[in-house]
């Protein structure tokens, strides 16, 4: 009986590890071909192991992204079958007060299963087991609904129980007024965009960069024939050392003339299996002190990332009585106010990690906590309906801005397309309603260089808004570090506050390590590189049409090169890869099955 229980609950741990290692590592193809004992087919076993092990590091891999774009779906039937099989059994154990069995089997599995680093596995189980068990106990979702949301096992829009709608004020939408080019010589603002620093305080030059843990370049000697971690950083599965982040920021402070800074989250490193609250507070305070010292006279407008909390991704909502997030929000409020936010933002930050304030007399910033829309935040499986009323709060402030003739910039960490479907589709409605007010959106999280189009919900050919995902400072994984500067219309009476151009700067990591000094490159200016008049939605839509008409041409290849921050070039992205990347650019709503219907189909 014990053996039978152990055998069946081996697969439970894959479900837990899949959740818990959203921010983990890539598995080499040789390891992914190994199998485990379970009731699935050989093909399912291989894909199951590949997807379940160290998911984040896998998803950061350029090869994985190209594979994902090549296939219409990478949802594993094995994952869905395992979830549908085991969630009912786990709920039974919880109901009869035997959740300890889940814990014991998880620990034994970590000791037994060799594809996962034992310390990482045990750490992940310890970090996430209580949340997983509580979600299973408290979620009103059926077993099928839980599995569908967790692993996208059902086609959108999933189930009515998880759908919800925001409400709008009883005021008609004004006639759309697309932004117009400014008069020659009009004033401009320069905005520095920083994101995803992921500084690793334990980084060790010369250490093992190809390791069995989610985060490498911290310990051990490289295997024979393998280079050790570079001094300034490493393209492999490593974050950047403190001194590299400091050098990049000092370069930006000395070279760039900026008016203020958007900072879209993710400060701690990717060692998510053994982080504590004190670790996160230390990282946040240390990096924000560095930012304040390097940019002493600049105001930072920050957003909270998924890595700021511990355990990673878990942002409890007020209905969760066994956990709270006040420790983080209080620390962020203190830190962000020291970086220039007014004191009157404190109440909102401490309540939910979001806030609004005026940057200039007619320019308002709204910083959203996008962790309350993320699929990786398990707590939302208990109740995902507009957590903390954040979207209704957003509507109220956008209506206020419209009434007072203000323009709004929205910042956040997760881009809207990575949100749970109901949140993402409601957010899209909001952007459509307030298209005259929203003058720009700025996000992070993906680490790569992307832009995101929003289209009219009725006329899918009419662009209404733009979002930018800023490049990361971290190299994780297979990326050059980078930052971006936007040139924005303003500040003067009647200015649109739309971005007119942007310039991306990267540190050439290969050259920096080779010559033992930082080497920076102005990678590209958007208008010049893409042949744009300005950076208005109509200009980006014109680019989209040109890319659609010549997917295999040099311009789409250039877009892929910039996407990787010049780690790769267009020759390394085939037709299917290019179609997938272009699909990313025009998919603003999560789980939108028809977002990319207008792109030329795959080659046979």
TrEMBL record:
Its main location: secreted. It holds the Pfam family ASMase_C. Its cofactor is Zn(2+). InterPro entries: ASM_C, ASMase/PPN1_MPP, Calcineurin-like_PHP, Metallo-depent_PP-like, Saposin-like, SaposinB_dom, Sphingomy_PDE. One of its GO terms (molecular function) is acid sphingomyelin phosphodiesterase activity. Disulfide bonds join 83-147, 110-121, 211-216, 217-238, 373-419, 573-577. Residues 76-157 form the Saposin B-type domain. It is found in: Secreted. One of its GO terms (biological process) is sphingomyelin catabolic process. Keywords: Disulfide bond, Glycoprotein, Glycosidase, Hydrolase, Metal-binding, Secreted, Signal, Zinc. It comes from the Eukaryota. Zn(2+) 1 binds at residues 196, 198, 266, 447. GO terms for cellular component: extracellular space; lysosome; membrane. Zn(2+) 2 binds at residues 266, 306, 413, 445. Binds 2 Zn(2+) ions per subunit. It catalyses: a sphingomyelin + H2O = phosphocholine + an N-acylsphing-4-enine + H(+). Belongs to the acid sphingomyelinase family. Converts sphingomyelin to ceramide. This is Sphingomyelin phosphodiesterase. It comes from Adineta ricciae (Rotifer). The lineage of its organism: Eukaryota, Metazoa, Spiralia, Gnathifera, Rotifera.
